[in-house]
From TrEMBL:
Signal peptide: none annotated. It comes from Thermogymnomonas acidicola. This is ATP synthase subunit F. The lineage of its organism: Archaea, Methanobacteriati, Thermoplasmatota, Thermoplasmata, Thermoplasmatales. Belongs to the V-ATPase F subunit family. Keywords: Ion transport, Transport. Transmembrane segments: none annotated. One of its GO terms (molecular function) is proton-transporting ATPase activity, rotational mechanism. The keyword Glycoprotein does not apply. It comes from the Archaea. The keyword Ion transport applies. Pfam families: ATP-synt_F (PF01990).
Length: 109
């Protein structure tokens, strides 16, 4: 029987209105509208809560994070933090690149 703790399976989103509402429509209740420094504060609150296994953030929030926070986000696996690419934004990170960045493991070779 697999181990299950209170940490597994909870997902949160912090993003622009359209993105947050879209995720809420597909059933992710913890979808929050947040941009700029307000969005970063909401992320910090969610991160510190220990309630989530995955936190997805608008890629625009990266601009408002200091180096310490960006390092924390890049190294975090519990919760896993990923940035949602915006249409017309920079190229999306592949699963292989994410695995290498977060876990230090190369896959797909």
């Amino acid at each position: 029987m697999p181990l299950k703790d209170s940490f597994s399976g909870n997902i949160a989103i912090v993003a622009e209105r359209e993105i947050a509402l879209g995720f809420r429509l597909i059933g992710i209740e913890d979808s929050f509208i947040g941009t700029g420094e307000e969005g970063v504060r909401k992320f910090e609150e969610l991160y510190r809560s220990g309630k989530y296994s995955l936190i997805m953030l608008s890629e625009n929030l990266q601009r408002f994070m200091d180096r310490r926070m960006l390092n924390m986000v890049n190294m975090s696996t519990r919760p896993l933090v990923v940035f949602i690419p915006l249409p017309g934004g920079k190229e999306e990170e592949s699963v292989a690149e994410l695995a290498k960045r977060v876990l230090g493991v190369e896959i797909g070779r």
